[in-house]
Specification:
Distance between the termini: 44 Å
Helix content: 40-55%
Largest sheet: 6 strands, parallel
CATH class of the largest domain: Alpha Beta
Bound molecules: FE(4)-NI(1)-S(5) cluster
Shape: globular
Strand order of the largest sheet: 6-5-4-7-8-9
CATH topology of the largest domain: Rossmann fold
Radius of gyration: 24 Å
């Protein structure tokens, strides 16, 4: 596709990345401050220039302020997404008709019971309304603590109480965090990070978890299903509509509208064989998980999808949509249609999705896309013949049932597999694409290395799409890539060795699963003691930073491919990669080589196993720790 875009004279993210070199080291190292107009201030890279800002802020304080502002944006993005879902559910369950309905009443009932909502004599709709109202109250809550905090292991909650980081309300912590970063505000790097963690926990155990739970309730909980992934899912004979962005409020309605007989007829009348919906980024994961809609690609493929020349419309809402898609769409017949007042794009036609008329709006958008089919120039169409089968649709609930079987639904078999060493441990590998790295290479190499060493992998977001394209989401991939222990588990249960749990907001599913593992017993009393690790090999977004911080604050050892922008702030870097473990159990490591990063994770998992008095993996595995590797090298 890169050869194709070059031949067509198109500019893509990789060209712009090259044109941007060399990139500013002050920015990379986190030591440029432009929070007030005495600056911008830059701390010297050589030690010969300024060692503090004009106000006296040190490198640690400047880098910490910059970093926590990124957490604030990331947490806001996930949480505002959740607010939209809760608002849609609130209106949908009010009196009158709505295009959205409660699709999973059993999950609704469980959540209502957990939140102690009085359900006696109430209809499903009324319970849904009360739950949506309670969810909305979490955003502006001023006292107490977020409801889902109590889902975390008690030992971790105690750490959070000790550090004073339990979030009271989702919006509140973001506002307070931003306030702290104002000139003359918080000038203690560790305290700034604690405020950042409060906002990040308000994402993971707040906004993201609310988004996942309520989406399952109003759009249905995912079940295992098969589909395909990569640009080859774009169908030359059909009207191709690519949905890109994040909120299923839009994409769910587009899925529903794409099945409307009148629109299918309209497509046929234009000479198309049907309507092919496909997705990019996390909205792709949402409609894949619930409907099996194929995935066209992850973050770095958004321009490439358009450059196939066969995309009649790209429909976007919010987050991770490059402004450049308008420019590339203009080179083809592709219509770029924006749908959210929160995100408008150059050269896009705006067709706002109003949740009160969602289905009609979605139909109008699809009609517009179909009308554009006849403008397609078939001479310009170039779709690579490449797509891979995949299995997706895993949730905290259906893993529970799957692992225990129908008659013994429980996490016990998972815990037992870890305790006996069949599974050495579990890794969450998540996050974005970043043009600094060869696309997907980090995700795939790390995941294969973990599998080879009997570490089961849970994945979401753009990593899940990378794994799908590499064939890692098929049960058969266990035989090809996994160690003997994982193979036995996958054979017994029929699952792939890499479990696709959804979009990035669905990392909350991983938190719930780990909470259940701790509750099941035998593996310690918090996440910090579990043989687990997390990684984001190609992260680039501020949402990924928020995720990284709630992962670490929840006790996870978290390896990032790209370092956080703290290299110019030695005190802060030391805290994040070491000292923070004393406060929360988890810590960061930075390693851009995915194999070395996988081994950091495996070493951590082995150390956790030892601390739990569990012997090593049950079967011989290729990597036996640092000493063995060094010994092999020396021999
Ligand atoms: Ni996550 Fe989804 Fe992808 Fe990164 Fe963007 S799509 S929310 S942020 S780029 S994984």
């Amino acid at each position: 596709m890169l050869e194709h875009t070059k031949a067509e004279g198109l500019t893509t993210v990789w060209d712009r990345y090259e044109a941007m070199q060399p990139q500013c080291l002050f920015g990379i190292k986190g030591i440029c401050c432009k929070n007030c107009s005495m600056g911008p201030c830059r701390i010297s890279l050589t030690g010969k220039g300024a060692t503090e800002g004009i106000c006296g802020a040190t490198a640690d304080v400047i880098a910490a302020r910059n970093l926590v502002r990124m957490i604030a944006t990331g947490s806001s993005a996930h949480s505002d997404h959740a607010r939209d879902v809760a608002t849609a559910m609130f209106h949908a369950t009010a009196e009158g008709e709505s295009d959205y309905q409660v699709k999973d009443p059993a999950k609704l009932a469980r959540l209502a019971a957990e939140w102690e909502i009085d359900t006696a004599g109430k209809s499903v709709k009324e319970i849904g309304h009360a739950v949506a109202e309670a969810a909305l109250s979490q955003f502006g809550q001023q006292f107490g603590q977020l409801k889902f905090i109590s889902r975390a292991p008690e030992a971790q909650q105690a750490r959070w109480r000790e550090a004073g980081v339990i979030p009271k309300g989702i919006d509140r912590e973001v506002v307070t965090l931003l306030h702290s970063t104002h000139v003359g505000g918080d000038s203690d790097a560790r305290n700034l990070i604690l405020s950042g963690i409060r906002a990040a926990l308000g994402d993971g155990w707040g906004g993201s978890m609310i988004a996942t739970e309520l989406q399952d309730i109003i759009f249905q909980s995912p079940a295992w299903l098969k589909s395909r992934s990569n640009l080859g899912v774009i169908d030359p004979k059909k009207v191709n509509i690519v949905v890109h962005g994040h909120e299923p409020i839009l994409s769910e309605m587009l899925v529903a509208a794409s099945h409307e007989p009148e629109l299918l007829e309209l497509a046929k009348s234009k000479g198309a064989e049907g309507i092919q919906l496909s997705g990019i980024c996390c909205t792709a994961n949402e409609i894949l998980m619930r409907h099996g809609i194929p995935v066209a690609g992850n973050f770095l493929q958004q321009e490439l999808a358009i450059s196939t020349g066969a995309v009649d419309a790209m429909i976007v809402d919010i987050q991770c949509v490059m402004p450049a898609v308008g420019t590339i769409a203009e080179k083809f017949h592709t219509k770029l249609i924006s749908t959210s007042h929160k995100a408008k794009f150059p050269k896009a036609q705006h067709m706002e999705l109003d949740e009160a008329n969602a289905l009609d709006n979605a139909k109008a958008i699809i009609r517009e896309s179909i009308e554009n089919f006849e403008n397609r120039d078939t001479a310009k169409v170039k779709i690579p013949d490449v797509s891979s089968p995949l299995v997706a649709g895993f949730t905290a609930e259906n893993i529970f049932t799957a692992l225990g079987g129908r008659y013994r639904p429980s996490y016990r078999p998972l815990n037992d597999a870890i305790i006996t060493g069949r599974l050495r441990g579990v890794a969450a590998v998540v996050g974005c694409n970043n043009p600094r790295y060869q696309q997907d290479a980090g995700h795939v190499a790390m995941t294969r290395e973990l599998l080879k060493n009997d570490v089961l992998v849970a994945t979401t977001g753009c990593t899940a799409i990378a794994d799908a394209k590499a064939g890692l989401l098929c049960p058969e991939s266990a035989a090809e890539f996994a160690g003997q222990g994982i193979r036995e588990v996958c054979d017994a249960v029929g699952i792939p060795p890499v479990l696709h749990l959804g979009a990035c907001v669905d990392i909350s599913r991983i938190l719930v699963i780990l909470g259940n593992v701790v509750k099941e017993g035998g593996l310690g009393d918090d996440f910090a003691g579990l043989p687990i690790a997390a990684a984001a090999p190609e992260w680039m977004s501020e949402k990924a930073i928020a995720i990284g911080f709630y992962a670490v604050a929840s006790g996870a050892y978290t390896v990032l491919g790209e370092p956080l922008p703290v290299a110019g702030a030695p005190g802060l870097e030391a805290y994040l990669t070491d000292g923070i473990a004393a406060d929360f159990g988890g810590k960061f490591a930075f390693e851009s080589d995915p194999i070395k990063a996988a081994h950091l994770m495996i070493d951590h998992i082995d150390a956790q196993r030892e601390a739990l008095h569990l012997s090593g993996p049950m079967f011989p595995v290729p990597y036996q720790g640092q000493d063995a590797e060094v010994a092999a090298e020396n021999s």
